[in-house]
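Quick one, tokens below. Sequence please?
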């Protein structure tokens, strides 16, 4: 009985909404507020996405060699922060659609929040795309009058 939390997540949000360790306030951009919470998929400071407030939260992070790690928050060990996170890693050599299907299936089978599945897949896709090497841009070819002038210079 001692493992259960006695404070509702709504009360935690009302208390911590204006000041917490994960909050990033920006004066530029109309006073935007962002979150550095590792269990926040969109980095927006809102009740829906903040992981420290919700009992069930999902985080997606980069893993070694181009892989993706899915972090879920357990509801069982709310008072033990080190024990209430579960990590599942997909290697970088697995194809994108298989990885995304794995994320969706894992969250669905664990009865996690369905409203976060699309954001989790989007975050995983962005992480995989960031692991790809950047292509070099080819030199622009001269056309028309400039091409003729450059050809005359060379000859």
């Amino acid at each position: 009985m001692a493992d259960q939390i006695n404070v509702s997540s709504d009360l935690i949000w009302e208390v911590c909404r204006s000041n917490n360790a994960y909050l990033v306030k920006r004066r530029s951009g109309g006073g935007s507020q962002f979150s550095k919470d590792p269990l926040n998929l969109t980095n927006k400071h809102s009740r829906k996405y903040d992981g420290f407030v919700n009992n069930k939260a999902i985080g997606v992070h980069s893993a070694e060699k181009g892989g993706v790690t899915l972090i879920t928050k357990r509801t069982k060990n709310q008072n033990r922060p080190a024990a209430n996170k579960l990590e599942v890693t997909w290697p970088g050599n697995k194809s994108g659609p298989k990885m995304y299907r794995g994320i969706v299936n894992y969250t669905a089978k664990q009865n996690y929040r369905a409203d976060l599945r699309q954001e989790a897949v989007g975050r995983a896709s962005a992480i995989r795309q960031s692991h790809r090497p950047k292509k070099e841009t080819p030199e622009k070819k001269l056309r028309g009058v400039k091409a003729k002038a450059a050809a005359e210079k060379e000859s």
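DSSP finds five helices and five strands in the chain. Helices lie at 9-16, 28-31, 96-109, 117-131, 145-154.
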